[in-house]
Amino acid sequence: MVRKKPGRKIITFDWAIKTILRDKANFDVLEGFLTALFRRPITILELLESEGNRRDEVDKYNRVDLLAKIRGGIAKDDERVIVEVQYLPESAYLKRLAYGAAKTIVENLNLGESYDSVKKVYSVSLLYFDAVRDGDDYIYHGRTEFTGLHTRASVTLKESLIGDRVRIGETDIFPEYYLIPLERFTDEVRDDLDQWVYAFKNNEVPDEFTAPGIVALKEKLDYLKMDERERRGFDKHLDYTRSEWGMIDHARREGREEGREEERKRLVRALHTNGVAMEAIAVSVGLSKREIRRLLGEE
């Protein structure tokens, strides 16, 4: 276990995804993290545009993500990885992850292409809330596996059913999901991946960390190395993030104390007016998206 000394403070990873990591010169940061997570060398070929990573004037502070084209290890063809940072719990969150992976598969198969061209998709979620009830880990991996209905034994499918681009027994074509609830990490660093998780959780990189890419993380996400314009942008982002969390926490408290329909309507409208995402409003007041739209007069 690595003993840690105070390290260099870095900007939050969600802000890095919005800004710094979109520059090709900084791909080595994300490559280092994915290499540690997937346990094979990863190269980012390019970042792809999607609904989730389009930037506009109205920032989304609860969730930010990027979609990358990657290659590495045993993969014969390029693959896709969705990396997202999520601050607050969201109703139907896992369904949204499943939808995002499926949508990525569809959007990356061109008209007229055979199914052999379907891309492998990974979904990686850095979570600032607890996602499990009785887990004993801080990284959870989900994948599709075929087993005997009666024997429960794993089975190896015929290669002809999978296609030439994927090797049976080493990987498969179905999406894989990684949930990383950072608060479950105890700050005990045992390997390269733990160094990355520690950095994401604490926004800090101790000098003794040596995982591939971690030095790039420390240097390129160093708050003190930002120019004045970059610092103002980051500080504004951090202020808005804290403000949104505060509004949601306030709504939860008042929602528990005031259960009346009119009070809920007022809270919903206030959060909506302040630009809080529909998913976050639903979680904060304990209503479905349909009920939220009804209170807003959209149905």
UniProtKB/TrEMBL annotation:
It comes from the Bacteria. This is Rpn family recombination-promoting nuclease/putative transposase. It comes from Candidatus Kentrum sp. TC.
